[in-house]
Amino acid sequence: MIQSFWNKHAQGYSQLIRSDLQSNKVEKWQRFIFDEIDNTVSLNILDIGTGPGFFPAILTSDTRKVTGIDLSDEMIKVAKENLKKLGIDATIIKQDCQETDFQEASFDVLICRNLVWTVPNPEKAYREWYRLLKPNGQLLIFDGSWYSHHFHEDAKKRFDEKAKELQEKYNLIAHNYGDKTTDPEDFDMMNALYLSDKRRPEWDKTCLENTGFTVTKIEENYLDRILDEQEKQCRTDIAPVFFIKAIKK
Predict the structure, then answer these.
(1) In angstroms, rounded to a whole number, what is the distance separating the alpha carbons of residues 183 and 207?
(2) What is the pLDDT at residue 15?
(3) How far is CA 59 from CA 62, 109, 210, 225, in A?
(4) How far apart are CA 249 and CA 24, in angstroms?
């Protein structure tokens, strides 16, 4: 289901990414990531769920080799197209993030954005990612709890309050992920995905630690460091987002 979803939306998502690549978000993302990794040494980086290739585009350099993987054929296609237009030499290949073909301890850094929520078996994926990292390698996860307000009362209260504020202040309608009436396809996906009803990032922290990672940072609302003030105020996507940093000891 999720593979066909991303195949369907690859072109639209690619347009958003191309817009971001022409904005000051590039510098903000670079600053964010470079604050978390050792940018003074050569690094082999794996971008898991690369989508249209945003991270390979902004991270590839003479000292940083970036490989992007995705399970969507259409995402692989648009990522290669985007990187070719930018003149960036990065490897983009089709792989299942839960079971890759890479050798053990191949990478210094693993990074993923808006992927984990879609993974059928995230416990298996985290074990695989642990295998792929070198000792002291770093895992950077950017993700969100898109459906939590459908499963938890406190999350619903938060969603309703923010939606009301958005409408009253800016006359904007909050995007309601998983709403059966407005988006039946997303409703079906919500009910099919393993992580939809989990409390996150708490679930991730426990799972990562059980896998062997040391979780060193959890930052909620990380997009506050990326978006400008107007975007923050008028953002209709009000689902909670978070950043997790973990190290393979």
Answers:
(1) 31
(2) 93
(3) 10, 11, 30, 18
(4) 35
Nearest Cα to Cα of residue 121 among 97, 102, 104 = 97
Give the full edge-to-edge strand order of the sheet including 43-48: 91-94, 64-70, 43-48, 107-113, 133-144, 241-248, 213-220
Tokens for 95, please give them: 């792989």
What Cα–Cα distance (Å) separates residue 239 from each residue in 2, 47, 75, 143, 225? 19, 23, 24, 10, 16
Q: Are 51 and 70 in contact (CB under 8 A)?
A: yes
CB contact burial 83-94 (16+ within 10 A = b; e otherwise) = beebebebebee
pLDDT confidence band for 230 (50 / 70 / 90): confident
Consecutive H or E run containing 70:
strand 64-70
Of 121, 185, 175, 169, the residue nearest 149 (C-alpha): 175
Compute and round to an integer the Cα radius of gyration of the chain: 18
- Give this prediction's pTM: 0.96
Nearest-angstrom CA–CA distance, 161 and 38? 40
pLDDT for 123-161, tens place per residue? 999 999 999 999 999 999 999 999 999 999 999 999 999
The amino acid that residue 65 corresponds to is K
The answer to whether 240 touches 144, Cβ cutoff 8 Å, is yes
Helices 202-211 and 122-132 meet at what angle, rounded to 10? Answer: 50
Residues sharing a CB contact under 8 Å with residue 40, sequence separation 6 or more, in sequence order? none
- Tokens representing 69 are 């993987």
Q: What is the residue type of 7? A: N
Q: Tell me which residue of 214, 213, 232, 230 sits closest to 222, measured CA to CA.
A: 232
* Residue at 63: amino acid letter: T
